[in-house]
Amino acid sequence: QVQLVESGGGLVQPGGSLRLSCAVSGFTFSNFGMNWYRQAPAKGRELVAAISKSGNITHYKDSLKERFTISRDNAKNMVFLQMNNLKPDDTAVYYCQAPNVLGSEYWGQGTQVTVSS
After folding, report:
1. Contact of 36 with 45, CB cutoff 8 Å
2. Kind of pairing, strands 111-115 and 78-83?
3. Average pLDDT across the chain, whole number
4. Distance linking the first and last C-alpha atoms of the chain
5. pLDDT tens digits for range 50-68
């Protein structure tokens, strides 16, 4: 059974940082790329960052690449999203996604990030 469990969200002031984590189980994690998405209120889900199976290739939404960093630890079956200099527009539910595991995609339940003073 595939499971993706996000953690690390919360309330942070503008300019602050958060590190999101996604713990993965149920498939051979090191064989698959992973993504982080987010969905703000009344908006569609958007891709934030992607990382290859080995972690040596990353991709970011253009407007976020200076502030967000995706990484992974294949020994621990985890993927991370470091978010710095957070802005109110970063407020959203953040989701971990395994986009193509033997033809299927899997999502976590999401973790809420709220940036507010």
Report:
1. no
2. unpaired
3. 97
4. 40
5. 999 999 999 999 999 999 9
CA atoms within 13 A on the CB side of 15: 1
Q: pLDDT tens for residues 19-50?
A: 999 999 999 999 999 999 999 999 999 999 99
In contact, 36 and 48? CB cutoff 8 Å: yes
Identify whether the C-beta of residue 69 lies closer than 8 Å to the C-beta of residue 50: no
Q: Which of 40, 60, 30 is nearest to 48 (CA)?
A: 60
DSSP-assigned beta bridge partners for residue 73: 78
For residue 85, give the DSSP letter.
Answer: S
CA distance 112 to 100: 24
Q: CA-CA distance, 79 to 99, in Å (whole number)?
A: 13
Per-residue tokens: 90: 């970063």
- CA neighbor of 89 nearest in space, from 109, 61, 110: 61
Compute the distance between CA of residue 81 and CA of residue 49 in angstroms, rounded to an integer: 8
Which pLDDT score, from 0 to 100, does residue 102 have?
Answer: 87
How far apart are alpha carbons 27 and 50 in whole angstroms? 18
The pLDDT assigned to 59 comes to: 98
